[in-house]
Amino acid sequence: MTRGLNEQVEEFRNRPLTAASYPVLWVDAIYEKARYAGRVVSMAILLVCGVNNEGNREVLAIEPMLEESQESYKQLFEKLKKRGLSNPKLIISDAHKGLVAAITSCFPGTSWQRCKVHFMRNILIHVPHKDKERFAGQLKGIWQASDLTIARQRAKELGDEYGDKCPKAINILEDGLEDALTYLSFPQLDSRKVSSKNMLERLNREIQRRTKVVGIFPSSESYLRLVTMYLIEYSEDW
After folding, report:
1. Distance set, CA 212 to CA 43, 65, 158, 226 (Å)
2. Are residues 73 and 58 in contact, defined by beta-carbon separation less than 8 angstroms?
3. Strand, helix or coil at 25?
4. For burial by CB atoms within 10 Å, which of 14, 56, 157, 177 has the most?
């Protein structure tokens, strides 16, 4: 029984990706406690979802790693390439430095979209409470713009108004703005889906809803058995 389950898990995780290309990828990591080498560690579970040319979304990879780093993401991407993944046009993720460096190294020519939701949170923590509501409303307006010119103008207006009052917030906005507006270069795509990694975070919540009943997994293999069987059904439901 267990051996058959293990075979299904490995078949899913190593299946060829040559049937279709995946122009858009979402990448994220969640952390789970598992026993490794006789001790309990917090493992980074790296997840990749993609949408193919037919518009179908799939879970492409789930890989447990001891850390979330440039090297671990490079291993993940190289494995995907060996399975047949060609260079995507757009990858959506948070701004983890190791992840961004691995994208640049493994997928030259691929555009990177910084998750706007995480970016806005990073900015707003540096805004005083009394200004937060008004500031947040204007900040959201940047990503409601229909084109890059309007988005940049709204960012400039926000900077002009709050540059002296909230310098740290405005500096973060200015430094990361272009990476958070990459999706506007892909007008054929649904901006609600490719401007953030919310879709993948919903999947993460569903996974953790199932794993929290276990608590500490006896091994990474036991974690993969539980989660991968769910992901197989999840991909089919999509």
Report:
1. 14, 19, 41, 12
2. no
3. strand
4. 177
What are the strands, taking DSSP E only, across the chain? 24-36, 39-51, 57-65, 90-93, 111-114, 216-217
The one-character DSSP state at 20 is S
Using one digit for the tens of pLDDT, what is the confidence trace for 106-132? 999 999 999 999 999 999 999 999 999
Token pair of 158 as six digits: 């926000």
- Report the sign of the C-alpha dihedral through residues 118, 87, 188, 199, in that order: negative
- In 3D space, the residue among 119, 124, 123, 62 whose CA is nearest the CA of residue 96 turns out to be 119
Residue where the block lists tokens 């539980």: 226
Instruction: Mention every residue, 6+ apart, whose C-beta is less than 8 A from residue 137.
Output: none
| Dihedral sign, Cα of residue 191, residue 195, residue 197, residue 202 | negative
